[in-house]
Design brief:
The complex is a heterodimer of chains A (161) and B (562).
Chain A (H helix, E strand, L loop, with lengths): L1 H57 L2 H11 L21 H5 L6 H16 L16 H4 L10 H8 L4
Chain B lengths: L10 H38 L2 H12 L7 E2 L5 E14 L6 H11 L5 H8 L5 E8 L1 H10 L4 E10 L7 H4 L11 H5 L1 H7 L6 E2 L4 H17 L4 E8 L5 E7 L32 H11 L7 E3 L4 E3 L2 E3 L8 E3 H6 L3 H11 L1 H10 L24 H8 L8 H14 L1 E2 L16 E2 L3 H17 L13 E11 L2 E15 L6 E8 L17 H16 L10 H6 L10
Helix pairs in contact in B: 3-4, 9-17, 10-12, 10-16, 12-14, 15-16
The chains are: A mainly alpha (161), B alpha+beta (562).
């Protein structure tokens, strides 16, 4: 009896201490991980600061002015070029009311036609997949075209510091 | 199972064994206690206090940048902390002073081998070899691998815009203490806030600042002036949108800035007699007192003689001038007579209300106290009425223009960005009606008077020229001028005040040798307003004039040209 208690105690002790040390090393690992993450964040923050400073340095108004004078045909805005909504010439009413061919109507009509049978008519023969084929013409965004000339522009910017 | 046999003793043997057993128990207890203590300490070290060291190490690593950033009103970075590396030496560990010094000097420009060797041979324990080295220099020193030479990460204050707003932002010393500008005024706040804290939001708009500096710098060069200054102030909020003082400095290289009198802030620190620009206040005072109106006129036929002084006009008309004409032609004689109608006490009270008898109140340490006459006699009243004998800063001039030509209330000026819709409190100095009259008069000067060259079309500029001779050598120096132009735009519901000042401009061929404000500061103001109005969102107007200016026209005699 006494002996079995001793054995059990010993076993428990071994298990507990193994568990404890395992836990401790696990915690240490997590701690190390947290520290390295913090260090990484610090490094990133420092890098962000440097980049922000560089951005401010590169977008100095006097530098932009020089670059603009060299590469662009833009001139400072003059008063004559500034206007408000009130300055806009209003279209005559009959010009607005006159019937105009628009691309939208066909698309909208198709969409409407697609929605109505689904809701109202009980047994439509039209398969549902047929309608989306027309809709993308309106909703799909234009494909992105990469700017081709970017590298050449960047190279010539280096002349002006 | 094995049997444990206990051996019994009797007599002397028993006693000896009992003694031994007792000692063994004591020893066991002591060891047990010791092991318990050790295991407790192990648990304590392993689980509880193990992190303390990590935390401390991290705190040092994180606390590298002790100041908050400074940004302009649109969030453009004006000042920030970056980390830099400094080289130090622990002298007791330096093996060969002569050799080490030579090798360090060979890779660090600006470090003298002799000086370094002397330092290495001194009793000091620690010296800086060079603060804030470049990455290339750091690499070179690292490659030398000299014993006793180490690197310390340090914070470096960086101003990406260099000279652009140097006087406003200021600079810090190598230990990160603010020495000028807002860096100095908000030193404590920015240290407390820390690099991760809220940046300091200035009212400054860096684009407007650039346009103002660009134009003033061009004029300083064109007219070979000693320096110049400029201000753009938001009339409604009192925010300083731009403040320029030339010559300026690069805050990234704070070498000998503090000791150079040339680099004084010409807008907030240096005080000047502003000459005729000051007449706007005399006019506002007289109109507000209700003693005279636009209909009244003054005799400006002959100069005024008071004891040894003669007060004459720069553009003499030799006739009676109506009140608007006095302002338009900038008549000293007429202005003096108007001021005398209000009297010395009235003038003193009015100028005190405008804040001209105290230092300007603004969040900068670089402010100049006004030069006020010790005794304010009638002769002082006369000269002060046209801007001589009382010296104030450009900042006060701008704030007072905002008051007398804005809504009649003197608002406090600030370098900080205010929340949208902010309306500062302030003391009423003139009535709204007087302010409206002043708008009309200032527009008149630009339409028909001495400030015609400041007329930026469609932006309804109103303003007043001022050309003062600088005092010196017991009198006034004819050739040393301070030419200034104070303007409001647009004159209908004014939004901004600008002040442009040139310190000792010289006339050019283009200006027929004139260095007066109408030929120097006025055209500069025009160019400034044309550039900044679109940035500030001031819409161009189709109104040709201010309604009051239109009304005034009937009191202006048409010029007879021969």
């Amino acid at each position: 009896m006494k002996r079995s208690i001793t054995v059990i105690t010993l076993c428990v002790l071994i298990v507990v201490s193994y568990g404890l040390y395992n836990l401790k090393y696990e915690v240490e690992d997590l701690q190390d991980h947290a520290n390295s993450l913090r260090a990484q964040m610090d490094e990133d923050r420092r890098a962000i600061k440097v980049l922000e400073a560089e951005w401010a340095y590169l977008s100095r108004p006097d530098r932009l002015q020089k670059l603009s004078a060299k590469f662009l045909v833009l001139q400072p805005t003059i008063a004559r070029q500034v206007g408000g909504v009130a300055d806009l010439r209003l279209k005559p009413m009959d010009e607005i009311l006159a019937p105009q061919p628009t691309i939208d109507t066909t698309g909208a009509a198709a969409q409407q036609a697609a929605q109505q049978p689904a809701a109202a008519t009980p047994a439509p023969a039209i398969p549902f997949s047929g309608t989306p084929a027309e809709v993308p013409a309106i909703t799909a965004p234009a494909p992105l075209v990469p700017v081709a000339n970017a590298p050449t522009a960047a190279a010539s910017l280096e002349d002006v510091q | 199972m094995r049997h444990i046999t206990t051996i019994e003793f009797d007599g002397v043997g028993k006693r000896a064994v009992d003694n031994a057993r007792g000692r063994v128990r004591v020893a066991m207890a002591v060891f047990a206690l010791a092991f318990i203590a050790i295991s407790l300490r192990l648990v304590d070290l392993g689980l509880l206090s193990g992190e303390a060291t990590d935390k401390r190490a991290l705190a040092v690593a994180m606390d590298v940048a002790p100041r908050a950033d400074i940004v302009d009103r649109n969030g453009v970075l004006l000042a920030t902390d970056l980390t830099a590396v400094s080289v130090y030496a622990q002298i007791p560990k330096v093996l060969n002073p002569h050799d080490s010094a030579l090798r360090l000097a060979s890779v660090l420009p600006g470090v003298s081998a002799d000086v370094l060797e002397r330092k290495f041979s001194s009793d000091a324990k620690f010296i800086w070899v060079k603060r804030k080295v470049t990455p290339a220099e750091y690499d070179a020193v690292n490659r030398l691998g000299l014993p006793g030479v180490g690197f310390q990460r340090e914070v470096e204050r960086v101003y990406p815009h260099g000279n652009l707003a140097a006087h406003m932002i200021g600079y810090t010393n190598v230990d990160g203490r603010g020495l000028a500008g807002v860096e100095r005024y908000f030193d404590e706040k920015m240290r407390k806030e820390g690099p991760r804290g809220e940046p300091l939001h200035l009212a400054l708009d860096i684009r407007v600042q650039h346009a103002l500096r660009d134009e003033i710098a061009a004029s300083v060069e064109e007219f070979s002036a000693l320096g110049g200054g400029g201000l753009v102030l938001d009339i409604r909020t009192g925010e300083i949108i731009a403040m320029v003082s030339l010559p300026d400095f690069n805050p990234n290289e704070p070498g000998n800035i503090a000791n150079n009198p040339e680099l004084i802030n010409r807008m907030s620190h240096a005080v000047f007699e502003w000459g005729s620009t000051f007449k706007a206040f005399t006019m506002a005072m007289v109109l507000d007192a209700g003693k005279v109106g636009f209909r009244d006129s003054y005799d400006a036929t002959n100069p005024i003689r008071v004891s040894r002084f003669t007060i004459n006009d720069d553009h003499p008309k030799h006739r009676w001038l109506s009140v608007p004409e006095v302002f338009m032609y900038s008549s000293n004689i007429g202005t003096v007579k108007m001021a005398l109608d209000v009297g010395t006490e009235g003038q003193k009270t009015f100028l005190r209300k405008l804040g001209f008898l105290d230092r300007p109140h603004v969040e900068l340490k670089e402010t100049g106290a006004p030069l006020v006459p010790a005794q304010w006699k009638e002769i002082n009243t006369m000269t002060i009425s046209f801007g001589h004998g009382l010296s104030i800063t450009g900042l006060q001039l701008a704030a007072a223009y905002a008051a007398v030509a804005g809504d009649g209330v003197l608002h406090p000026v600030t370098v900080l960005k205010m929340p949208p819709g902010y309306r500062p409190s302030g003391e009423r100095v003139v009535s709204q009606e007087t302010a409206l009259k002043m708008q009309g008069l200032l527009r008149l000067v630009v339409e028909k008077g001495t400030g015609r060259q400041a007329d930026a079309p469609h932006y309804l500029v109103g303003g007043k020229t001022g050309t003062a001779e600088k005092a010196g050598g017991g009198g006034y120096r004819k050739k040393a001028l301070v030419s200034s132009f104070a303007a409001i735009f647009p004159v209908i519901n004014p939004r901004y005040v600008t002040v442009v000042m040139l310190d000792e401009p010289k006339g050019t061929k283009k200006t027929y040798g004139y260095a007066t404000a109408g030929w120097t500061a006025a055209p500069t103001t025009k160019r400034v307003i044309e550039r900044i109005a679109p940035m500030l969102g001031v819409p161009p107007s189709n109104n040709p004039t201010h309604p009051v200016t239109h009304e005034i026209m009937q009191f202006i005699q048409p010029e007879v040209r021969s």
